[in-house]
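so the lab meeting is tmrw and i was supposed to have these ready like two days ago... anyway. pasting both below. for each one the top line is the aa sequence and the line under it is the structure tokens. i havent really looked at them closely yet so no promises
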Amino acid sequence: MLFLLVSCAKEDLPPTPPPPGGEADVGRAIGGVPIAAALPAWAARILYTDISPERPRFGDTVVVTVEKPSTFQRDFLVFSEAYVLNKKVPSYLFWEKVNADSSLSGSITQKWARNKAVFKIPITQERFTSGLDYLVVYWCVDSGMRDSQGKKIWECNGNKWGLGAFDVVTEAYPDFLIEKDIENNRFKGSAKVTPQSFVNVQVSSGVFGNAYAASYLDLLSVMTNVTVVELLDVAQFKKDLSKDIANLSAGWTTKGGNVCGFLNVGSGFVSFSWLSGYYWVTVKSSGNVLDEAKIGNYAKFKPPKYQSNCNLLNELKTIANISEGCGNLIVEAGEECERNAQCAEEEVCRDCVCVIPSVCGNNETEYGEDCESDAECEENEICSDCKCIPAGCGNKLLEEGEECEAHKDCDEGEYCIDCECIASSCGDEFLTPD
């Protein structure tokens, strides 16, 4: 009997949300409210929600996912009815209901989905106009407190709908960008953007043309942007790059399957840029891990297929009139460094190799040393200051059997002749300062 009573008990759920728009009749709402403006009294900032793509085109489907954050320990419920603002009804704008996809959402009890709710919104010209379009979702979190009757007290974003937006665009850039999902990365949208180099180089005016960017979101919510810049003057662009070749060469590498370009690691991001004919392509990922899948896809597959110029660094050296070899401040094949700053903290750059500084006299023959003892030198050589030098008179080292190597080694009135101290006088056949 106890089991029966428990199983039949009504689940402790949040109260039904108020109608969006603050009207008793769901449907009569405000007009389009820019998200950047003050939110209406009945709405709050949208949270815990992914809208993808953010910049859809007609014919696309916007997927809205409201999901419990991994850091939440208490119950998280999503109302299984979202609303989009339909702008095409002749008489007035109204909020149109969209039901959660039960196959993709958590278990639904009395219109409340547990932990996750997914809504699919087909973007049609019968429902939407180009530009910003709006949607609202509603979620509640168990506050951990109970009322006088022992029921859960739910925190429902201040009992307000979360107001979000997506931007319906009519332009597409398939000749420049991959405007679809790449592997497990969701395509978020594309747009014309302000061109930039991404490699901290001052670019001359008139070099850049149009620029296009696409954004993608991976399973770990890491955002990657791919920017393609048209070059109106490739020759001048190379000259601009060559002015900072010493710094650029330090980042010259290969990524994404033999794509040659410049790696740039910044604060909170990492980017990779390469030249492909009349285009400058940059893949920039948030965090510290570069998304090489984007590099490979943009370099190999049509559209747009931006193959890299792997001879670019040599071209820049020629423009900058820099000869090859150690000492030109450019780290080339077979070199580890050109400056100490390019080595690990405890190392220094010697002959373009990063080494731990040698310490003469520690009984270990290290980089830059010939020896630590005479036994490591050739016959008729001795070890002096960790260098092998010829043994015998004249090597500036006072050795066994020698009295001197310089006049200062002798007593006053004596001179060092053939490593012997001699009291010289006129007629002794030795020419001395006196």
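ok protien two:
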Amino acid sequence: MCLYFKHDGSDMVVVGVYVDDLLATATHEELVDKFFEDMAVLSIKNLIYVSRFLGMRVHYDDHHVYELDQEVAIDELLRKFGMENVHGERAPIGKECNDNPALQEELLPAVDKSTGPRFGDFNLWSTACCGLHAIPDRTSLSQSTKATRQTHQPRLADWELCKRVLRYLSGSKSVKLRMKGCNSGAALRLEGFSDADFAADKTNRKSVTGGVVLLNGMPILWVCKKQGGVALSTMEAEFTAASHICRELLGFRQLLLEIRLSVEPMPLMVDNQAAIKQLRTE
């Protein structure tokens, strides 16, 4: 996603571009209309108010609240795998997610041409991986979609995790991301939360960074990824996670300031006292 903006005194136009899809907004509706008039030479189609973008359904109400959901995309994904009527799961992963993969060596079977594709075939696995990555508005899937890393030699355990995620989506497809409007000129609240799971990977004992960045209470970035090095203590793992979220906060702050939006002092929530003391001395 690229972001372009133009200032003209107190007026401003902001355009987000993703491949051949555009989102345009401005301080006045007339500025948006003028933008599309100026870009008419490129045969850009103006769909007026946004209702769908990158597979997400967008709803805006009279209370200045935006809601994002992917219920339609989830229904389509479940229908593709014949799971429209499955019982939902309360969580996308279980405690077995951190089991040593070396103990789960049974691979998915190849396609049986004589009997046709089975539910656990490799081709369907690839389709499921693409489908899960097409659900970008779910913070709860950051850890569970790690199963899609096994694209070369997926195991049966990976497929079971994938089916669990699909059942979770079936039971939570109506969940939405909400962002409320704020008073004109009011400073935006940008805050971050970081955490770390020390030595979580039982294969190489690398820790996992987890974190989220909120803008006026709405998640705008979330991360759950394995750290590059092996942390020697819980404090080191937490410090690494906190530094990752700090970089993201600074990036968002710079972007908001460039488009002339004021930002409150940014708090970072860390749940490790040793890491907090280390951060305060840096």
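from a quick look at the 2nd one: Residues 157 and 243 are 33 Å apart (CA to CA). The chain has a mean pLDDT of 85. will dig more after coffe
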